[in-house]
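Researcher: Let's run the pair from yesterday's discussion. Sequence first, then tokens, for each.
Model: Starting with the first of the pair.
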Amino acid sequence: MFIHDLKIENFKGYNGHDNEFLFNIPDGTTEGSGLNIFVGENNSGKSTVFEVIEFLKDGSKKEIPDLINKSYPEDLAEHLSVEMTFTGSLEEVINAHVQNNKNAVFNARVYDVEGRSYFRVKRSSEDNVKNILFWNNENGSFSNSSGIDAPFKKFYDNNFIWADTNPNNEAKFGSTTICGSLLKEIASGHIHTDEYRAFSANFQRVFNDPQSELRQKISTVEDKVREVFSSQFGNANISFMFEELQVENFFKTISIMIDDGVNVPMGEKGHGMQRALALSLLQVYAEITCNIQGAGVVGKPFFLFIDEPEICLHPSGQQKLLEALMMISKTKQIFVTTHSPFMLSSPHLKNAGLFIFKKINNKNVVSRADTSPLFPWSPSWGEINYKAYNLSTVELHNELYGYLQEKNSCPNERAMEQWFEDQGVVKNKVWIKEFRGVAQAPADTTLQTFIRNHIHHPENVTMQNQKYSQQDLETSIAQMIQLVN
């Protein structure tokens, strides 16, 4: 089961009702297929998407006035809502992870469109925001059936690694953490081994066999409780039955120790070391889970959200982390916010969902980078900088110049200059070549070639005092983008 889409209305910086996301979903084989990357300036709404998804699953301890968009007209400022649609093996997940007496309610809200199954939920301030609403595709409306809120919260797991919270939480072994999920993946198959069967038999012998020493001690308590109960309420047999714990419950008492000369629990180390370890666990999770063979067990859906993973990670660590996320995203859905060039310079990003966030007129505006790619190899780091941050860089200039040269079969500078002229580009710059350190005759040239020569020939002493400006770079790039399009 995966998150297919998300709709946000009047939540913090998301003004109005037209804020929709269509997410990448893992295809089971392609690295990056389940990876969704959010890029953009600060305060443009990247982390808010994480908050929305957390709010939708668990409700909120915050008051609606603290969450609602403040720039919306006053007469409509009391309403916010969020909707999310799931897709995939919905009925299998529901039957495996929703309590039996609520299965029918959940399954009744699964609907098919063009051979794919969907399940849609909503929280809205127009209703009780604490209640989750299920979409009824037959009558086209949302409603809350009695008793569905608690089962929905256990229906799937979100794991958030926030940029501004304690990463020590990620090294705990609860069911919704990386560590817990990692050990569950390993242990889920181990319960079928002879070793675990022997453990299970010993558990029953110690806690439930009438002949065990512990059981005989407990029986004295049972007898006394039975005697008191029978004297006051009537005859009844009272006994204590110990159910064997699920294997993942044994992990909750585990702690991680770090010995870098001083052996102490992870929580006593510095924030940077804690975050580095939490992200290292992700990489191990990727390696192990991709090699575990399924045993016919329907795992609980697990969605991973990482806010600015580059914090406290050196460049090579960021690149290795991206490789791990790529591997995990073949089968798991991952959401990442980042500003890092090392996280955004992989050729595999072509398979990922890259979302560009901007703040325009005090409203968060989001677009996908693949809606108007500049190159066959898009997205590139230079292209991302241009679209997300309005930054014109030499990297993008090089890409555009080289792409136009290749696309129009211009083998040299002379041919390229002629092609530019044919497109109406004016030669408004002068470039002086050097041959063995000797300046040659000045030549009129286009702005594009003037900048390209500066980038490629920093050894040219003659032209070092005649640099291009940032405005020149922006103008040249804008003109080449027009020519590409």
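Model: Moving on to the second of the pair.
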Amino acid sequence: MGKTFVEKLMSKKAGKDVSAGAIVSIEPDYVMSHDNAAAISNTFKKIGIEKVKYPERVVIILDHEIPAPKESSAANHKEIRQFVNEQGIANFFDINNGICHQIFVEQGFAMPGKLIAGSDSHTTTYGALGAFSAGIGRSEVAAIWATGELWFQVPETIKIVINGQLPPHITPKDIVLYIIGQIKADGADYKSVEFTGDTVGAMGIGERMVLTNMAAEMGAKNGYIPPDQITFNYLKGRAKGAFEPLYSDEDAMFFKTIEFDVSQIPPSAAKPHTVDNYAPIDEVAGIKIDQALIGTCTNGRLSDLEAAAKILKGKKVKVRTLIIPASWSVYKEALKKGYIETFIDAGALVLNPGCGPCLGAHQGVMAPGEVTFSTANRNFKGRMGCRESEIYLGSPLSVAASAVTGEITHPGRFL
């Protein structure tokens, strides 16, 4: 019997043959944290070890509350900077870089066959480049800093096969919201989710990152897309060293295989207050919105901004519209291509790359009774700073179209 990708990788890292269900102690290739690194450092110090075992494997990226909106945030950042200097952590990215998941990929840390842990649930994003990447708790990160290793249970694998020619108004976000609506928020609990099929193979890295980012919203331990020439081309001159791609065997034992033909799916939305509360956009069309949010670690890449600009070009928005490029690199490219000017002319606010309103930290916190249509990955009560507000999720095309009309709108109206 063959092995799945994750069984192969964990066998390699553990130095012995293992299968789904086994518990192994493994040294991750990298461990990522962000603004919560201050809390992690406090736990680390309580362990009683003075020095991080492998500082070269530690990546810290400030992105959640940048620039600091209040004194406590500034103190948090100061503590992290001090810890970074004390420990000699070279892979530190301060507030002028962008969102951690985008920066981690841009900087070449996400590579095929690598095992990555991170103190953020959407660490699953890096599987878009053929890595095993999983979100873990803060105390677990502290343990890795101290010992260099952590135990994992080898997950079973769900194979999701996506085929079909996409209509012009359908994006990877529509696809993944549809899939989550079908298998539900707990449908892949502690499973490795492998996305494959012709539709996935035709996607660029940024589009693939949408699928693996949202794998967390179906309960997955990790999301994985088999690396191919698109992956290798992206990593040329970017990868932080050598890597070895790993693939599931044809005769591997999967927990289940689910196939989707996406050629006929409509634009998707997730209704409040869960990501799996799926609706085709026509079902929620006409709902008035107070704010539109385009960007975040899910949909803040250049292709997403291009899609939004296509809708907003020459138009004016009717509601507060926030644009968040995922990184300053993306911001600069969008500036060169004229997208930023398009957003400004349309009346949108272009924010600095960071998490900000997505988690309700600052720059777009909602008021009671308000509704936001967002390209982010979560819509739980209080997610954007107010438990008496509502968040709908959709694609950059759908959110941009809705910003123009002031109500949830099918993007086909402008395409």
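Researcher: Give me one sentence on the second I can quote.
Model: The chain has two domains: 5-260, 267-414.
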